[in-house]
Amino acid sequence: MTSAVDSIHEAPRDEVPYTLDEPAPKVLSFWDQSAFWANLGVSLFAFSGAYTVLAPDAAGKPTLSIVAGIVAMIVGTAIGGLMLGLSAAPGAITGRPAMVLLRGLFGARLSYVPTVLNIAQLVGWGTFELIVIADAARALWDGVPRWTYVVAAGVLTTVLTIWPLGSVRMLRRYVTAAVMISLVYFYVQLLREPLPDLTQGSWGGFWLGADAALAVSISWVPVAADYTRHARSARGAFGAAAIGYSVTQIVAYVLGLLALALVAGDTSKIYDPFLNASLGVVFFAIFVLREADQSFANVYSTAVSIQNLVPKADRRVLSVGLGVLITALALLLDIGDYASFLSLIGSVFVPLLGVLAADFFLGRGRRRGWDTTLAAPSRWGMIAAWVVGFAVYQLINPGGVSWWADFWGDVQSALSFTPQSWMSASLLSFLVAGLAAILIGRIGGGDRAAAGAGGAPGASGAAGEADATPV
């Protein structure tokens, strides 16, 4: 019989284990997952950051017309949704969270490199989410100081993170329907307004706009398996992520672009069309409240990513500490250069996904299975494939950080390479990284596998960290 003391250290059977010692419960249905991803697809970023899919120039002036931006956004989101589905399926197959999966791709020690990058970007996303929630809440009612909203959002985020699977099921039961009703309501209200000419502008920079939308989807790629490891089937995990997320992100971004057109491109007034509508404050408050699911997902995945570095760490303790951290950062920072942040995320994780998908579904993962234990040997060849894909992305789109763009501009000059308008940094880096992974794997450079590590994809290490050999 389990003692009262032991029960403190054991999670409920339908909840995420506190450490990586125990296997993940397979309790999320297709509809649980669909509701989760659908809610993540609807974000206040789709309103405040809608201008990014219009490929703004160095002066911040949109290049694309609204119509061109909508098409670019749909294309980018659809491609990003498929990529998100590809990253979701391995989690359901292996039962392993995202960064632990990378032990099979890169080896245990080398998986720490993308893990640290992922922790850094998730802390950034979590901080930005609290800032957006606070700013949107003040747009609803500015009767209290901004810090009050930041702290309240931080507390709500932390509470949701303590019970992650319960939070996912709650989204399905109570939140999703309210969000869908709000979206329909605002579409009706905004389409009743006299819209300006939505074709004014050009189609130049189409792939820059598509990549901006794709980058938002890709931002969830390095965390997808944290949730789909609890899925009942890989097919359901792929479909829920690819379709559930893409549909609602498209719906939300189109709404954001319509609002942007109504305020003549003034991003500082992006919330006005929503708040000025009849009952707009009520329905917009639903968006503000449910934005906490974005910060919740970021904080929870940060905790799980840290567990790849420290498997015995209790995710509840990590969640509380991270909640305090992002709340403090949100009180000190502002939104910053959002477009450059998205570009950086895409340049790192798009080629990483290319390597992962190629090796898991077509390479060693399919032939012999991945070793995801702490004893997994290093696979430098897969790191090389990732670096190649990353370089391709930067050559095509080095982003908006001046010193970084200048460096890659010098590389372009040295190679006599000029990016063409038809080139998509995301697509080409994904394909090049994937092809490099396949080639390196076949010649043995990326396949320093431990003897006897065969089996189905991810079979090695499925029993949990307690039996793993320490690094």
UniProtKB/TrEMBL annotation:
Q: For this UniProt entry, what is the primary localization, expressed as one broad class?
A: membrane
Q: Which residues are listed as membrane-spanning?
A: 36-54, 66-89, 110-134, 146-166, 173-191, 203-225, 237-264, 270-289, 317-335, 341-362, 383-401, 421-440
A single Pfam family it belongs to is Transp_cyt_pur
> What is one term from the GO cellular component aspect held by the record?
plasma membrane
Q: Cite the entry's keywords alphabetically.
A: Membrane, Transmembrane, Transmembrane helix
Which InterPro entries has this protein been placed in? Answer: CodB (IPR030191), Pur-cyt_permease (IPR001248)
**Entry keyword annotation includes Membrane:** yes
- GO MF annotations in UniProt: cytosine transmembrane transporter activity
**Coiled-coil ranges per UniProt:** none
Q: Where does this one sit in the cell?
A: Membrane
> What topology in the membrane does the UniProt record assign?
Multi-pass membrane protein
* Record-stated family: Belongs to the purine-cytosine permease (2.A.39) family.
Fetch the PANTHER family from UniProt.
CYTOSINE PERMEASE, CYTOSINE TRANSPORTER CODB
**Would you tell me the protein name for this molecule?**
Cytosine permease
User: Which organism encodes this protein?
Assistant: Actinomadura barringtoniae
